[in-house]
Amino acid sequence: MNPRKLVIGNWKMNGSVPRLRSFAALAAAAPGGCPAALCVPYPLLPAAQTLLAATPLLWGAQDCSAEDEGAHTGEVSARMLAELGVRYVIVGQSERRAAHGETDGQVALKARRALAAGLTPVVCIGESAEERDAEQTALALRRQLLQLARTLGRELGAVVLAYEPVWAIGSGQALAPGLIDDTHAVIAELLAFHAGLPAGTVPILYGGSVNARNAQAILGRQQVAGVLVGGASLEAADFMAIWQAAAHQGREVSGIGA
Ligand code: PEP
User: Fold this and answer.
1) Domain range summary for the chain, segments of one domain joined by +
2) Of 189, 139, 181, which Cα lies nearest the Cα of 163?
């Protein structure tokens, strides 16, 4: 597995230009060698491009259209995002699945558009509380991954996956690090079996109530390639602490030393 851990922040429908400015000020002194990106609301992307370009912090978006162009009022295409210097785009985050009825099929099409535009889709998968209670976590993950494999074929190897137990998002209760490791191992097995992708090909992030206090323990797990952070990505100091924890882990794994 790539020892460099990835940190993605999801600002959701929050943030402002002054907030971006405070991130840019701190990011100028950020840890090198460990990628991190802030996925901001669309209207903030031009400011992100201006303010973050000279820092190691990348910027991204929280969704893209499943279409390339045309009569799709309110939609934003992956190509438009690429023109704003976007590197990562989150697709299939559970709030979009729940509030906008996005299906596994639509999420897979969005990921395909993102890849075609040269972006890296961060594809969110995860079980609901009901699926967890019915012990159907592996089944839910298999359903979501099968759709991705059908739509993307070998290109599935170019996405970043984010395993986000839906019930853990915004709850303050992250899944225990040992269980995260176990579930990531299940996802790696499903990828190998259904898509022929050897373990480690697809980075698997964890998301769901990651914060500055639990980041080190989660990022220290072998199967965890990084984290997708919602609430805690809104405070520059918290986000920087998580980024530092990721950089520290990356150095430990590669043997360079902290
Ligand atoms: C998310 O927005 O995908 C997320 C994981 O949020 P939080 O970190 O707030 O749980």
Assistant:
1) 6-254
2) 181
Residues 6+ apart with CB under 8 A from 153: none
Query: Could you tell me the distance, in angstroms and rounded to a whole number, from the CA of residue 169 to the centre of ligand 1?
Result: 5
Overall fold of domain 6-254 = TIM Barrel (3.20.20)
Q: Specify the ligand 1 atom closest to the Cα of 228.
A: 5
Ligand 1 atom having least distance to the Cα of 211: 8
Comparing CA positions, the residue from 96, 84, 74 lying closest to residue 44 is 84
Give the pLDDT confidence of 207-227 residue by residue, as tens digits.
Answer: 999 999 999 999 999 999 999
Give the residue whose CA is nearest to atom 5 of ligand 1. 208
**pLDDT tens digits for range 65-122:** 999 999 999 999 999 999 999 999 999 999 999 999 999 999 999 999 999 999 999 9
What are the b/e assignments for 8-38, b being 16+ CB within 10 Å?
bbbbbeebeeebbeebbeebeebbeebbbbb
Whether the model clears a pTM of 0.85, i.e. scores above it, the answer is: yes
Spacing of C-alpha 233 from chain mean position: 12
Q: Report the alpha-carbon distance of residue 16 to residue 197 in Å, rounded.
A: 40
Ligand 1 pocket check: which of 10, 62, 163, 238 to mutate, most ligand atoms within 8 Å of Cβ? 10
Atom of ligand 1 nearest to the CA of 210: 8
Q: Is the CB of 92 under 6 A from ligand 1?
A: no
